[in-house]
Design goal:
alpha/beta, TIM Barrel, 8 strands, about 15% strand, globular, binds phosphoenolpyruvate
């Protein structure tokens, strides 16, 4: 059985005091939510304080990116051990905004995923096509390229600790979510890729989240799909009520 996982990507939002307020509200409501795995991913500057807030609760902590090197002269970067030291269990890697604005490639995503796994972090690896690619009928090609190359060289055991987030770029922050049929079609395709690369049981066990304009009013349709195992939530994770409603929407 795959446990549903809902992760909130706060992106470059929330000062320290705002993060503390939001984390406290989420924790108050979801501290004992064991049916669904709940992860919040604040900006780096808030990780340490948010970690203290969610400690001893069911809410887990993630970061939004990481560097693959262990330490050294990489100004502005943060290492896996630094994330571990502030209580992170998860790290988002290869988000489309990093691919689009910060030169992230499958190759760097792969290095980061391997470093995260080696350090005991669980990577949430993002894949997904742009609008033009979908319109040109290239969705499956792009997703295959992202999945195969971003996750190249991972053992079966490593793969089982990865969460894949299918995030069609045209659905991120636009208010236009993929329909449940569009999401399911790609999720099922990703599972077939995993089956081909590994085996049936690995493919059945890896969790695949959907991301892109997930809201309280569309989560139950999406989560009702056979191969949708959760959501990576951007905008709607910035308000406690909508994030909590999305989590609770998965229980129905
Ligand atoms: C995201 O950035 O991962 C995302 C899914 O954003 P939003 O929910 O705002 O579309």
């Amino acid at each position: 059985m795959r446990k549903v996982i809902i992760a909130g990507n706060w992106k470059m939002n929330k000062t320290l005091s705002e993060s503390i307020e939001l984390a406290n509200l989420i924790k108050r409501s979801l501290y004992d939510m064991t049916e669904i795995e709940v992860v919040i991913c604040p900006p780096y500057t808030s990780l340490s304080d948010v970690s203290e807030i969610v400690r001893d609760s069911a809410v887990k902590l993630g970061a939004q990116d990481v560097h693959w090197e262990k330490e050294g002269a990489f100004t502005g970067e943060v290492s896996c051990s630094m994330l571990k030291s502030v209580g992170c269990e998860y790290v988002i890697i290869g988000h489309s905004e990093r691919r689009q604005f910060f030169g992230e490639t499958n190759e760097t995503v792969n290095k980061k995923a391997k470093a995260a796994l080696a350090a005991g972090l669980r990577p949430i690896v993002c894949v997904g096509e742009k609008l033009g690619e979908r319109e040109e009928g290239k969705t499956f090609d792009v997703v295959k390229d992202h999945v195969e190359n971003s996750l190249a060289g991972l053992s079966k055991d490593e793969m089982l600790r990865v969460v894949i987030a299918y995030e069609p770029v045209w659905a991120i922050g636009t208010g236009v979510n993929a329909t449940k049929e569009q999401a399911e079609e790609v999720h099922a395709y990703i599972r077939r890729l995993l089956k081909k690369k590994y085996d049936d049981s690995t493919a059945r066990l890896v969790r695949i989240q959907y991301g892109g304009s997930v809201k309280p009013d569309n989560i139950s349709q999406l989560i009702g799909q056979e191969d949708v195992d959760g959501a990576l939530v951007g905008g709607a994770s910035l308000k406690a009520d909508s994030f909590i409603d999305i989590v609770k929407g998965c229980l129905k």
